[in-house]
Amino acid sequence: MAGIDFDRQVFVPSNAPQGKSLVQMIVPLVVVAALALIAFVGYKVFLVNAQNNETAAANAQVQELQQQVVAMQKRIDTLEKHRKGVEASPALLPATATATATTQPTKTVYRIAAASAQPVQTKTADASVTAAPAGTSPEIVGQVAANREAWEATTNRLADVVGVVGTQQGEISATRETVNQLLAQTKRQAVSFEVSRHNEPFPVGPVTLQFKAADTKGQHYTLCVFFDSQKCIELRDHALNEVVVFVVAKDQPPLALVATKINRDQVAGYLEIPTQMQ
Predict the structure, then answer these.
(1) Helices and strands, number each (H, E), in the chain
(2) What is the DSSP letter of 250?
(3) From CA 246, how far away is CA 243, in angstroms rounded?
(4) I need a surface site. Which of 13, 118, 233, 236 has the fewest CB within 10 A?
(5) Could you tell me the pTM of the whole model?
(6) Per the domain annotation, does 131 fall within a domain?
(7) 132 falls within a domain
(8) Beta carbons within 8 Å of 66's beta carbon, 6+ residues apart
(9) Residues 163, 219: one domain?
């Protein structure tokens, strides 16, 4: 039995696997926490970018409508100037025709006969020329007919222009109303507020705010919004500096609320109200 050797290290328990298993449990928790933090930050950035894009789109639409109004106004001014010039030109047509007729000279024809046959006689203008009035000349008649046709065509064109101008004026009025509505919704005024757990509901512009709950650790809050009726519109579990957009009535523009300070018993911030609701 003395020749048999045993490896005693095989029977000694080792603590190394416990250390590795602990590390393997901590690493997934750290990765999950990092992913949650990245998702939260991305969500905040997305909300801010969405708000900025909406404001920029509204401003671009307002500028485009204003440019259309200016272009329509210029077109109306041009049509009005053209109409006034055409109305003044037909008045000159009769005077031109009369002047052409009066400046046409009468022609005198002389005939000479032999002395033995008859005495010298003089005749006035040819009967074919003196008998006809000056206004019956073919050239003058053609010119007057052409001027009359031009005047009738101009009159018809003016009637079409007046119809187009009336239509454009209606479109301009509708466009102006749309622009005014967009400008009224775009222009907002910020009204500050402070609501407390122990105070009565606080009126802010067209609505009334009431404190419901606040979480100082997580910096979240819950408020009640009253508008006209006694029904509460609850803004639940929103974060600090988060832009909360909500609608209090069907035909009213949206409002935006931002909390800038959250305490245990108090929430302070401001409410953005369109100018047309004040």
Answers:
(1) 4, 8
(2) T
(3) 10
(4) 13
(5) 0.36
(6) no
(7) no
(8) 179
(9) no
